[in-house]
Amino acid sequence: MASIGLIEVMAEALSGDFGPHIATVLPFLIAVIDRDSSEQHQTTLRALPALQILSPSLEGYLFLVMPRLIALLDIATTPINVVEAALKCISSVVAAVNCSSFASRIVLTLVRLLQCSPTPALQTAAIDVLCTLMEQLQDEFTVFMPTIDAAMKKRGITDHAQYERYSRLLFSGRLVPKEPPRVQPQMQGDAAQAVSAPALGQSSDGLAKQEVSVSQLRRAWSTKQQVSKDGWLRWLHGFTYELLQQSPAPALRACSNLANRHPRLSKDLFNAAFVSCWTVLPGQYQQEIIASLQGVAAHADVPPDILQTILGLAGYMERDEKQIPIDLKRLGDYADRCHALAKELHYKEAEWTLEKNYETIEKLIELNQNLDLHDSAVGMLDYVRKDQPDVQESVEWYLRLQQWDKALVIFRRQEAERGPSYENTKGQIRCLFEMSDWEALSPIYERIWNGNDQQLQMASANIGMSMAWAMGNIDRMEYYLATLPNKSRDKSFCRALLAVYRSNFDEAVRYINDAREEMESDLVSHITESYSRGYSQVFRCQMLTELEEVIAYKMSSDDRERQAAIVDTWRQRLGGIQQDVGMWQKLLRLRSMVLRPVLDLDTWIKYVNMSRKSGHMRIARDAIAQLLEDEVRFMEEVNRGEFEAITPKLMAQAQEYARLNAQQQQQLGLSNGLSQGLSLHGNGASSWEGRMRRFSIGGGNSSSKNAPLDMSIRLSQQPALVYMYLKYKWADNERREAFQMLEMFASDYASKIGFDVHNPEAFAEHIDARVLANISNADAADDARTIHLLARFYFKQAEWLSSVQQSVSLAQEARTKASLGAGDVPYTRQSESKRGSDAAVGLAGREGIRMSEDGRSQQDAQFLYELRGERINEAILESYRAATVLDRKWYKAWHSLALRHYHVTQRFETEHGSITEEVVENHVVPAVHGFFRAIQLSKSDTTLQDTLRLLTAWFNYSQFESVAQAVQDGFNSISIRTWLQVIPQILARIHINSESTRRLIRQLLVEIGKNHPHAILFSLYVAARSDHTERSQAAKDVLAKLHDVYPELVEETEVVS
């Protein structure tokens, strides 16, 4: 009964939106009717009103409902009160939905009921249903009227006014079907009270409400000294059940038994049940229940789920304008304990409005930063500086903002002024760890572990463990693990990690399971708040899973297919990981336990590029060093025959590596192997830097921190690794060396495949013959990869030269502006270069060139600019052109080449006032070809900028026949849809002076109109009504041609316009 009442309440509340849930509740109601074998049919009488309420949603389910309702009209087997209820239900259904498919069964059953009805009231009810059916069926109902009239005559029924009136209206054609009224039957019992009650816990006059049993609730909210997590959860479940049982709201009481069986429903209804009881409790008991909740939250072992429930209740009551009487600071503490950062931020902001203090400032900065609200965190700091200018900046602020370098400076200054301290050393450790500065961090740990400060050792053991793992020092990992506190949430993971290193796989699996159990509560609390907050916990789960896969990989040493499947899964999974350097760093460390970096080069290159773009240059450098070290060991293993899958190509690379290594060692006078000098942790790096003075690349800075990497990269047999390293070096402000090395490697790779950068077109046929025709050949496929990468080398060379030109132009303009004061800068070629090279501006920002902050960067730019001199534009174009020849389907190369030609043309015209035939042939025509090719290759619909520049070049130089011919040649190379976004610009030039251009414009407009007439016809009619004679005539000519194709559409558009 309670379930039926709940269905009625929900259906009445949702009204027309209940349709999607019919399939869920209807089988239950039908089962109630089918299984009712009692004499009085009480459950049937309870289910029929519910079907009345659901009647507007039953149209698709009549085949289930109507036969059962018709069966209830059998007066011989069904009590009269049930028949009357069934008639009411049928009347509601007939009035609400189309029942024409059941019309004959309904009419014949009602006729039989008329003939044997024991009471006049039952006869009247049956005729009322027939009237409703007549109104719905209209003329189709006439076939039943003779049978109905005969039955009524037989029973002597002659005074049913509504039936007679409907009959006259039907035959005269004036019976208008009405919209079925919304059925609002009187619901029974608790359901009626729930709907009519204005709010939870209240009832309107005339409706009784259940009294809340305070004694029962007091027993339920009593904690009885719960100690275990399961015990606390059982307490919450029992408390919720009692709240539902005692709730004044009938709808909630109806859910109590169901919620007792389904904990998820119980959890969802807790807030509503609490508020419904809270509103009717006297003040004394309200204080008691709040004190009980505060006592629960005060327990140290209470699970985060309970704290989350209390916080959810506080938010629910706040939205309902019933503030829970718990202190804001206490609520913030609850949120902190269960890692509900968003809720904690809400309460801390409210606390800040009441009281402004240092502690709250630091917490607000930290919370905003942890929620990825960096702007809010910085804004909070700026607000404090303005609102309280005398406030002294705290190192904690920079820690909260994750500005580790600034915080480290303050820590070191404080150490110099006051001497070492626990907090200072701990702060330095954290900063250096976040910056991945293992070289500076290692001596600090040596000092700590040689001392006697056990508190500092325990506090820093976790970071020491991570540092040792990053450096690959397994012995130190075990050393730090022994000091790690038992309550550390990472201890089980670290134990599992060490067990895998020691090949104790059973022990590792046990620790992995322990780690999962330990993080369960954190995962639930974080996910409950938001997915982004829980992502870090989900990532920890993934780390555990991948550690299990590492174990599976090690145990499958004889199953290469299984190992390959695991590696393939890792690579696919990496595509779903956030672009976060820290997360990728941990995953790659884990995978490198079984998968050496040089064999997973693409993944490591992505990782290095991500680190570089995000400004983590030290992390990028360490990753590059690890790759190079691994390549050294790998090549040595190949040369010694220790690697199993040695191919002829791999052997040739190893031999070439050995030759270059021997040549380099001979130059440096080294007796030991190269691998002894590559380490970045220890004395190896310093020895390399000392010897680098004897080896200088093009006069570069030999004392650079990247000097050892410069040496080893020259031996690399992986062009992709070389390319990645050069981009890192450029971003690290070693621009001169990076550019010269780029030229050197590009020349080397070009010579291997026979490519001449000064005559790239001659190589186009060579590519087809050598690569595409023999793509199955391993050597040809390898050449294809080299060609693809060489295109990137030349493209990057052009980009760097463009940024150099931009850098020098900015510096010259700045010096000119300084010499002239604040006045206007006179026009110079360099200033125009600045304005024209917008691509270079973007590049300078992307590559991280800090020209104003780093004097060496500016010196390098000046050096490279002078190296190319007046030929810098030619060199840029030459490199872009080489990239387009080497990779003819690369949009970025064609776009950049066309854009460069476009800017050179603009600059020349600005400087000389006009343009020559030579410039047109050398720059305008190639720009047109380049823009067409770029538009053709673009994989997105955002080609507007290229299309607009193409139109500008066409219209500005339309008097040159070569330009018009280039445009005409390119029309068929791109989709006609490209022009839809620039129709207004094309129509604006429809009357241009050049005859050839006018002809091409008309031809283009006709083609657009044939394929997309709706996009252009109205605009053409507007142009046709122009006061400008030539413009109007040109538009009419186009319309005339389109009229031949779409005569009706053109005429209709003319009428509309």
Quantity of strands, as a count: 0
Largest sheet: none
Write down the Rg. 41 Å
What's the tally of helices? Answer: 54
Tell me the β content.
Answer: under 5%
Mean pLDDT across residues: 79
- Briefly note the structural class of the backbone: mainly alpha
Q: Tell me, briefly, the overall form.
A: extended
Helicity range: over 70%
Low-confidence residue ranges = 183-208, 670-703, 822-854
Distance between the termini: 66 Å
Write the layout of secondary structure elements.
Elements lengths: L1 H13 L7 H13 L7 H13 L7 H10 L8 H17 L6 H14 L3 H18 L7 H11 L5 H11 L17 H8 L17 H8 L7 H18 L3 H5 L1 H6 L1 H16 L4 H16 L5 H16 L8 H10 L3 H14 L3 H13 L3 H14 L7 H6 L3 H15 L3 H13 L3 H13 L3 H18 L2 H10 L7 H11 L3 H25 L1 H25 L4 H15 L6 H11 L9 H13 L3 H24 L7 H21 L15 H8 L15 H7 L5 H13 L3 H19 L10 H7 L7 H43 L8 H8 L1 H9 L8 H14 L3 H15 L4 H22 L4 H21 L6 H13 L4 H11 L11 H6 L6 H17 L5 H8 L4 H17 L1 H10 L1
Name the features.
mainly alpha, 1057 residues, 54 helices
Any overview of this molecule?
α2 (22-34) packs antiparallel against α3 (42-54) and α30 runs antiparallel to α31 (560-574). The chain is mainly α and 1057 residues long. It contains 54 helices and no strands. Among the domains are: 489-591, no CATH class; 978-1057, no CATH class.
